[in-house]
Amino acid sequence: MNDIFNRFVKENRQLIDQRLNALFESDHDLNPDLREMMEYSVDAGGKRIRPLIMLAVLKTLGWKIGQEELTVGAALEAVHTYSLIHDDLPAMDNDDLRRGRPTSHKKFGEAEAILAGDGLLTIAFQWLVSTRFEPTIQRNLVSELALDAGPSGMVAGQLLDIQGNTRQYTLEKLRHLHELKTGKMLLFPAKAALIISDTDSDVAHLIVDFFRQFGLAFQIHDDIIDVTKSSAELGKTAGKDQNLNKNTYVNLLGLTDAKAELHQVLKNCQNDLDKLTRLNQGIEVEILEGFLMYLK
Question: Where is coiled-coil annotated (predicted)?
Fold first, then answer.
């Protein structure tokens, strides 16, 4: 990864973690047991990719990052963590390991894990409306997050994933599944940055397309490493999707063709960045390029 991106990640991941801790600590009405369960999964680690995407787009656009932007980033991480807690439940993927430690339902119990996820989802919207952004920006952030995380986005994708346990999907159907389940919540951070910075231009359209392609590449990469890395390396159970014959890019295309598909999608991402620099030579894209290194 490039040095600029490495510095960006190191500095801003720390700021995101600090903001998450501050938001939990300042909420004196939060049930202490729920707080422990919610923080257990939030503090389990993770790359903080979703809030980092939002901050990276803001920085690329020359926007100054402050507490309000970090609060939005914290809300993104809360929604992502809720989705992981629920995804790991026995009724869903039934996983015992997440980020190298016992999943929430293994640590606290199934009912408690459901409630911890519910708490993280709803507190995210509480945090969004606590920001000092103009009401129009707040409203747009809440509306877009509800669409992308809810029954028109990530939740719908999760349902398609479950339904796929009993049916074989085409490549087109699989792409649609992951556009919803994974892609929406990797694209929303970029859209959030564009809402905050009030950017609506050809630059914005290229950034949106870049992260739409990135979401697809992210899922293909995830399917590949599920069968090529160990549980210790992944921090979760390896090979489970393949063993269950789930609808994945590897199961559908084979490992070699899945890698070729990933290579093509990453090439599409780079093409978007090249267009961006040609469109506006004042824009530095090194930080955005750094996200692609996660997948190589």
Answer: 259-286
Tell me the H-state helices in 130-248: 135-149, 154-163, 171-178, 184-197, 202-228, 231-234, 240-243
pTM over the 0.90 mark: yes
Token readout for 19 is: 């903001």
What is the domain partition of the chain in residue ranges?
A: 3-291
Three-state DSSP class for 97? strand
Residues 185, 112: Cα–Cα separation, whole Å: 24
Q: Environment class of residue 47 by beta-carbon count within 10 Å: exposed (0-12), middle (13-18) or buried (19+)? A: exposed
User: Hey, what amino acid is at 39?
Assistant: E
**pLDDT tens track for 225-278:** 999 987 766 666 656 666 666 899 999 999 999 999 999 999 999 999 999 999
* Terminal C-alpha separation, the chain: 10
